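Recap slide: DNA-directed RNA polymerase, sequence and predicted structure.
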Amino acid sequence: MIILFKEEIGLDAASKFLGYTQLLIYYWLLQQAFNIGIGDTIADASTMETINEAIFIAKNEVKELIRAALDNQSEAEPGRTIMESFENKVNQSNCLQYLIESGTSYTKKLEEELQKHDAFIERLYEDNEKLVER
């Protein structure tokens, strides 16, 4: 069929037609393949378990700090009020670290999926370039 295009409309017009056809298909795939759906926002069971565990540990640490503050066991740090000292202790606790670590596993899985999609698009782009060169 490509040979017929070449014979009927000429080499330049046939190569432009095929190039634009591939470009159209490429952009269609780009738009359709990379839409983010609800499935992309739902973590798998192991990731959810890790996240829930991290949240549970972080909550318990903060509960202990709150309990100590309510029982008047907290003391003001030098140069800070009791409230500032409490906030500092919460910030220094491992709460944020637990949450960061739990999100890291999900982020790695997303990065792997994106690399697969990027490789697919790169192959499409390379194939398009080869056809345009012909």
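The helical segments are 2-9, 11-33, 45-70, 82-92, 95-133.
The two ends are 15 Å apart (CA to CA).
(End of recap.)
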